[in-house]
Amino acid sequence: MALLNFRKPAPAQTGPSPEMEALLRGYSIEVMPRTAEKVDDFRHYLPAGTRVYIAHIDGTPIEDMVATAARIRAEGYEPMPHFAARSIPDAATLSDWIARYQGEADVRQGLILAGGIAEPRGDFHCSMQLLETGLFDKAGFTRLHVAGHPEGNRDIDVKGDAGVMEALRWKQAFNDRTDAAMAMATQFAFESTPVIAWAERLKAEGITLPIHLGIAGPGKLQTLIKFAIACGVGNSLQVLQKRAKDVTKLLLPFEPNEIMADLATYKAAHPDSLIEAIHFFPLGGIKTNAKWAIQNGGASTEPVNGPEAAFA
């Protein structure tokens, strides 16, 4: 009689997948001075060395921005303040801001973008003009990020698709003549298909700048919809609107599990994709976002007075 070969079923996977762990490796996160004030100690929530973008909302005093950068540096993180062209009146002001950041917080990285206001305060209206000053290279910045828009940009789109690609090719050319490492940081999205298609299209067009893809962290559905509309997020907003129609889900917090799982699978299958890293917009708060990242495969925090208590 032939022996029956009974194989034990494969054990169910517990914990985050290797693909998700790889995707979350080296993620970055964004704060503002007023939101940073609510964080008792970033070391309770973020892995050591995390890049922390500091959003410069028009009207925020530069003193508050520099103080936030200094605090982030002191707690063991890499501050990357925004330099919003339309909020900077002239090259002298830009030079002064760079000097303050470097003198008080040893800032060597910056996100260079146009900014959210419609009318410029002075000489600059786009990120390319800031880069053309040469002040970032002169100051020895090691990393410069520029904005990317997977679902379009209301300012650039008035020139049509040709205008969008012209701006990207200019940034690509600048990458070839600067000593700083460059990447594109994007607005947040809620659906993987449009951003993957955008990344593949850029690569086909000869763009090689790595993409640090914006993801909205966990938060109330109403809050995310409000920010998505204000920031001009396009097609993937439908994901939130569809969820809002389901009364059973309306009061539940939104988490980026689905888009992150899709991206992790895609990145594992396409390791040469331009999508290099994840950048979180913690719309539901730093603590909530950090807890989600750790639970889903991100690096843990250093034990500083008990991070477990911080997440309790």
TrEMBL record:
It comes from the Bacteria. Keywords: Oxidoreductase. One of its GO terms (molecular function) is oxidoreductase activity. The keyword Oxidoreductase applies. InterPro entries: FAD-linked_oxidoreductase-like. This is Methylenetetrahydrofolate reductase. It comes from Gymnodinialimonas phycosphaerae. The lineage of its organism: Bacteria, Pseudomonadati, Pseudomonadota, Alphaproteobacteria, Rhodobacterales.
